[in-house]
Specification:
By secondary structure, the chain is mostly helical. The protein has one domain (about 35-345). The chain has 13 helices and no strands. α1 packs across α12 and α4 (about 100-135) crosses α8. The protein is globular, with a radius of gyration of 24 Å. It has helices spanning about 1-50, 55-60, 70-90, 100-135, 140-150, 155-175, 180-185, 185-210, 215-240, 250-275, 280-285, 290-305, 310-345.
Length: about 350
């Protein structure tokens, strides 16, 4: 009996440790699930912001004759000081950059913002909006490959399927129904794919920035928009002269430019950068392919531009691709949870 009495005190700590490990693992899974949902909401917020970009840019380019470089420069110029003032008030320590961060943010701002905007604008001019939009959403392919190479993100079959479905869907929403629409202009095709690569670079640089430390999304944006504004200033003065800094805008024109800067630009990029903290870069890139159908719906509701049957089919394909990638994420989380529970049961 004495041996039996001593048996339980010996076993209690072992059982207690297993239960504590099980509870801790379940808590980690719950926190991870909340973070993933927050990341999805941030991505959808970025997509919603970016979907309104055309509503601001169209009148600025058509009615006020601003060039794409002027629009890009003024967006960056207005956003950067506003972010600087906010950071000086709330996060003064964020102005400190380490030596490792300086070259990283210089490349990030020049490639991810300045070059991307110039290449995207050139693609729109040569390819027109429909084909340019279809080509820029080749970016999920480049993001997925880059994330696999640089961040060791897992590449699943369901993710590859979702990429293919989304690329086809974006092409249909943009009105591109035959390969000939893409192949008749090799220079335009190259520019369009370059815009996809540049946006993929922005996504991957953003993922890297969120992994470098605890720097907030707004401080990241401050540096890349400041560097972008300086880069676009140099480029614009060379190509457009002093007209770059002398936009002919009335009161309504300035309202449009301010709305573009602090709506789709600041709001979209802030949400997008924040989402990269909790979601894989490939998943974030795929979710942003919801932008073309949202833009088409807004154009229908606000501008009276009706969507064709083909565009509705493309919208359905994009939604199917997003559902596929989300289903894959849920499956992966269930697999992770099952592994944790099995390990805890083994400890018992």
């Amino acid at each position: 009996m004495q041996d039996a009495d001593h048996e339980y005190p010996i076993m209690e700590p072992v059982v207690g440790r297993a239960e504590h490990s099980n509870d801790s693992s379940k808590g980690h899974i719950m926190r991870r699930g909340i973070a993933v949902r927050r990341g999805v909401l941030f991505t959808l917020g970025a997509t919603a912001f970016w979907s309104t970009t055309g509503l601001f840019i169209d009148p600025l380019v058509s009615a006020y004759a601003l060039t794409p470089v002027q629009v890009s420069f003024w967006r960056a110029l207005l956003v950067a000081p506003a972010l600087g003032l906010f950071i000086a008030w709330r996060q003064p320590d964020a102005f400190r950059l380490s030596r490792r961060e300086i070259p990283y943010y210089m490349v990030y701002g020049l490639v991810g913002i300045a070059i991307f905007n110039v290449v995207w604008s050139a693609s729109v001019q040569i390819n027109k909006a429909a084909v340019a939009t279809a080509l820029i959403y080749s970016s999920p392919v480049f993001v997925t490959l880059g994330a696999r190479a640089f961040f060791r993100e897992q590449l699943r079959l369901i993710q590859c399927l979702a990429i293919g479905v989304n690329v086809v869907g974006c092409a249909l929403v943009a009105g591109v129904t035959t390969p000939g629409a893409l192949l008749h202009n090799p220079a335009g095709l190259g520019l369009g794919l370059a815009s996809g690569v540049a946006f993929a670079a922005y996504t991957l640089f953003g993922k890297g920035a969120t992994r470098m430390g605890s720097r907030s999304a707004l401080s990241i944006l401050f540096y890349i928009f400041t560097i972008s504004a300086l880069g676009l200033l140099g480029w614009g003065l060379l190509t457009e002269g002093l007209a770059l800094v002398q936009p002919h805008l009335d009161k309504w024109g300035w309202c449009l430019l301010l709305g573009l800067s602090f709506g789709p630009t600041l709001g979209g990029y802030a949400c997008f950068t924040a989402s990269l903290r909790t979601l894989p870069a490939g998943t974030v890139s795929l979710l942003t392919t919801l932008e073309p159908p949202i833009t088409a719906v807004l154009a229908f509701l606000l501008l009276g531009r009706a969507m064709t049957v083909v565009q509705w089919l493309g919208t359905a394909l994009i939604m199917a691709g997003v559902i596929l990638i989300q289903a894959g994420g849920v499956q992966a989380r269930w697999a992770s949870q099952s592994t944790v529970i099995t390990a805890a049961a083994t400890d018992l």
